């Protein structure tokens, strides 16, 4: 009896089992994360919207992305917790140094530019010889 087919089937079954157990673990962790959401958490949705949780009502989570702008999301749409943005106040305390750079006037259209010098005519002779 040829056992190679049986060995290949066992290896395939083992690979599928390991892959599915890993995905089940990830799904369980995501469900635990979503069930432990709290007001004030910084989160990111599956579509990439960052916001702060302002209210939770059952399966509906209200996020504030900018002050005064609230949107409602299903709890399942929250992908992960994000780190709050840290603003470095020390960089803002020092005034920015602006060097004096000469101002260049840029014309609105080409009519105010000087005309191009005429072609030397050499290009026309080259075209005639071909």
Automatic annotation (TrEMBL):
- Return the InterPro entries for the record: Preprotein_translocase_YajC
Positions of the region Disordered?
Answer: 104-130
Query: Chief localization class?
Result: membrane
What is this entry's stated membrane topology? Single-pass membrane protein
Listed Basic and acidic residues bias regions: 121-130
Low complexity: compositionally biased ranges:
104-113
Q: Which UniProt keywords apply?
A: Cell membrane, Membrane, Protein transport, Translocation, Transmembrane, Transmembrane helix, Transport
Its localization reads:
Cell membrane
Q: Which family does it belong to?
A: Belongs to the YajC family.
Q: Report the NCBIfam families cross-referenced here.
A: yajC
- Please identify the protein, giving its name as recorded: Preprotein translocase subunit YajC
Whose protein is this, by species?
Cellulomonas avistercoris
Q: Which gene encodes it?
A: yajC
């Amino acid at each position: 009896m040829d056992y190679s087919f049986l060995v290949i089937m066992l290896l395939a079954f083992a690979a599928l089992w390991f892959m599915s157990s890993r995905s089940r673990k990830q799904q369980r962790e995501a469900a635990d994360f979503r069930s432990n959401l709290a007001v004030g958490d910084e989160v990111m949705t599956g579509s990439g919207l960052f916001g702060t949780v302002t209210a939770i009502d059952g399966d509906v989570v209200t996020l504030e992305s900018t002050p005064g702008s609230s949107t409602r999301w299903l709890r399942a749409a929250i992908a992960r917790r994000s780190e709050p943005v840290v603003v470095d106040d020390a960089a803002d305390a020092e005034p920015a140094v602006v060097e004096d750079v000469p101002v260049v006037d840029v014309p609105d259209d080409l009519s105010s530019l000087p005309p191009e010098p005429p072609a030397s005519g050499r290009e026309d002779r080259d075209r005639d010889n071909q």
